[in-house]
From TrEMBL:
Domain Digeranylgeranylglycerophospholipid reductase catalytic: 190-250
Entry-linked InterPro entries: Dggglyphlred_Halo, FAD/NAD-bd_sf, Geranylgeranyl_reductase, GGR_cat
Highest taxon, organism lineage: Archaea
Keyword Lipid biosynthesis assigned: yes
SUPFAM superfamilies per UniProt: FAD/NAD(P)-binding domain
UniProt entry tagged with the keyword Lipid metabolism: yes
Keyword tags: FAD, Flavoprotein, Lipid biosynthesis, Lipid metabolism, Oxidoreductase, Phospholipid biosynthesis, Phospholipid metabolism
Record protein name field: Digeranylgeranylglycerophospholipid reductase
Pfam families cross-referenced by the UniProt entry: GGR_cat, Lycopene_cycl
GO molecular function: oxidoreductase activity
Biological process per Gene Ontology, one example term: phospholipid biosynthetic process
E.C. designation(s): 1.3.7.11
Broad class of enzyme this protein falls into: oxidoreductase
């Protein structure tokens, strides 16, 4: 078995698999080490609700046959109101999507080793030159990429990431049938992805219903272990209890039944990224972390981070005399902030402010969104100050003062 490659990638998620696709297409020798067995992949890592948008599908050549349902709209809900925005989307069968990325990369020459748990970097003269996996197995590369998500066995040991517990978000999702998709008094959820802000259901977070056809949908929730979770949460409730509570109290779900074997759990960190790279090494995907802090979309951002890392590796490897030192890999950080997560600090602050608000403020937000033009949410979502100002009111001053006090006390999210 070959043990020397141009690039070694730990993790076969969307970020790692896309990085491998791009590198293999350029003719590089690349190997991906994946913890799970190939027969079961990705049973353990089938953790995403898999809502994405046509821009991702087109940019990365994703086929229609991994899509469960194409959607026409995004719905935002508060406890008593809702807002509908026409926005095409796609709800993926996440396992099929991940298997497609692996198969497509293999066609271009990427090698995959399953049942390969990466444990530590191999260091020479202070630089990473390879990794150990499964205890005593070794593989070497000119560049090493950590795409393992929050586990980050390489990035942590290289002091590239520092994932804080208070910024840890957890989520749970089931697939249901028998859902009343067009219940009177609620928005019509046919061909829609719905996100709900409601501390009763997800303190310090949000819940969702993503339509997957007929009377079926993905139903889940997530929250950050933040001050809002401790303020609004129930001391004895687990995340499973919150989902059970929603299913028991929402009339749209009263006749719904869970589909066997269709349960997903996941986690990510909602914080500013630290260092993204060092000599001969890059961290991508949720290792960084990369998930959008405001609405949790991660697939497109992870794919883009894999692509930016591949482009960076190519910029060094295509010139035989350019060493992949930290100085020469610095372009990855530039590309990450420009193309993967622009305005990330502003969006993190918006996230913290949004989840600080009480439920009644969410109802008012829906009324404001219905009153304003269709572009206001889009511009506010990108951190536009003028658009954000349109969503604020004089009686928000106590909320803003509380937010400012927390920021002065605890700094930014990191």
């Amino acid at each position: 078995m070959n043990n020397r490659y141009d690039v070694v990638i730990a993790g076969a998620g969307p970020a790692g698999a896309q990085c491998a696709r791009d590198l293999a297409a350029r003719g590089y020798d690349v190997v991906v080490l994946e913890t799970e067995s190939e027969d079961e992949f990705p049973r353990q890592s089938n953790k995403s609700t898999a809502g994405t948008f046509p821009s991702m599908m087109a940019a990365f050549g994703i086929p229609d046959d991994v899509v469960m349902q194409y959607t026409d709209s995004v719905v935002l809900e508060s406890p008593t109101d809702h807002f509908v925005r026409e926005q095409p989307g796609a709800v993926l069968e996440f396992a099929d999507f991940k298997r497609y990325l692996v198969a497509d990369g293999r066609e271009d020459g990427a090698e995959y080793r399953f049942d390969a748990r990466v444990t530590a970097p191999i260091m020479e003269n202070g630089e990473i030159v390879g990794v150990t996996y499964n205890g005593d197995q070794e593989v070497y590369g000119e560049i090493v990429v950590d795409a393992t998500g929050p586990a980050a066995p390489l990035a942590k040991k290289l002091d590239v990431v520092d994932l804080e517990h208070e910024n840890h978000a957890i989520g749970i999702e089931y697939e249901f049938e028998g859902i009343d998709v067009d219940r009177p008094g609620f928005a019509d959820l046919h061909d829609a992805m719905m996100l709900r802000l409601d501390h009763e259901l997800a303190p310090g977070g949000y819940s969702w219903i993503f339509h997957t056809g007929e009377d079926t949908a993905k139903v889940g929730l997530c929250y950050i272990r933040n001050e809002q979770y401790h303020q609004y949460g129930r001391e004895s409730y687990s995340i499973d209890d919150y989902l059970d509570h929603w299913v028991d109290t929402d009339p749209r779900l009263q006749d719904a039944t869970r589909l066997e074997g269709k349960m997903h759990r996941g986690s990510a960190h909602i914080q500013m990224p630290g260092q993204l790279y060092t000599d001969r090494f890059m961290a991508i995907g949720d290792t960084v972390p990369t998930v959008d802090p405001l609405w949790g979309e991660g697939i497109h951002k992870c794919m883009k981070s894999g692509r930016m890392a591949a482009a960076t590796a190519d910029s060094c490897l295509k010139h035989g005399n350019v060493e992949p030192t930290a100085e020469n890999l610095e372009v990855y950080e530039t590309l990450w902030h420009r193309d993967v997560a622009p305005n990330v600090r502003a969006r993190l602050l918006m996230t913290k402010l949004l989840y600080l608000a009480p439920d009644e403020r969410y109802d008012r937000l829906m009324a404001d969104l219905n009153r304003l033009d269709d572009d206001t949410l889009a511009r506010a979502n990108k951190g536009n100050p003028a658009a954000i100002a349109k969503l604020l009111h004089v009686d928000d001053l106590p909320l803003l003062a509380r937010f400012a006090k927390q920021e002065l006390t605890f700094g930014d999210l990191l």
